Amino acid sequence: MAAHNDIVLFHYQFSPYGKRITWYLTLRGIEYAQCLQPIYLPREDINGLGVKYRRIPIMSIGRDVYCDTRLILRKLEEKFPNGALGASQPDQKAIEKLLESWTIDGGIFMRAAQTIPPDMPLMKDPKFTKDREDYMGRSWSQESVRDMLPEGLTHIRDGFEFLENGLLADGREWILNTAKPSLADIEAIWPFHWVLQLKSIPPTLVSREKYPKVYAWIDRFDKAIKTAERSMPKPTTLKGADAVSYVAQAEFSEPEGEVDSNDPLGLKKGQDVESWPVDSGFKHHDRGRLVSLTAKEVVLAAQSKIGGKEIRIHHPRWNFRTRAVSGEGAKL
């Protein structure tokens, strides 16, 4: 079974980070295939690709596998430039970038995760809580979750306040005052959309009456997504073995690239290296031969577990660490 545009998205449907990518693909009308994953480890399909990176989603285009939604969105903008959602003016690009940083690095999503109801059925599943402890590096006991809830609610309310009386204060429909949703809207909306789905915030703190502009913005966004969904086929769903086999047999989607000789890491092309995120999921390191290193991206060559075909694993540089390793064990 073929994957449209050679894209296979590995995600699970309630993943808030996954929504960043599915929304983008839908608004662009870019057809793709998906391989649905369990909400917690192990994820045997991703292991089958030879990828140790544990966060969701990852996206393959051919035999290139892209990790981290910031990198995925940038690659989609580059590979499908006609109708791109990203800003073109420098001041708007700056707002877009600041919103990305605010929601991911600035703590908005982390605070949103602190509003997960402690009595939610998933929170009583020891496999889930153990998995999230591995992911975040902190306790996910019910006691810890209850302790963090007031703090999370306080910060998320502050986020609604900023949107209502800041970015959306003049009554604009979209963040950059565009005619339709842009990448800036995706960068801003996803954690707030998610917490409203969780229904974990008391209406005394956040409600449609208190934040009418934010709620109307989220309603418009949902309507835009539903309209876009009706105009494109549903994604093809591949089973794990089929998805891994498809990726392993595909062609690479971009040239090999070079290693910047002036990079502070001082690494050389072909050197055995490992790379991993430092903010979450940091216990899981990808290893392989260094293919490319730029200011924004590191690319490792590793072997899939099906057919031993080489794949290329792409990580961003921001909040990722890369270092040389001995040759032993460098292949996945």
From TrEMBL:
Gene3D superfamilies: 3.40.30.110. Pfam families: DUF7962, GST_N_3. It comes from the Eukaryota. Residues 111-229 form the DUF7962 domain. Residues 9-82 form the GST N-terminal domain. This is GST N-terminal domain-containing protein. It comes from Cladonia borealis.
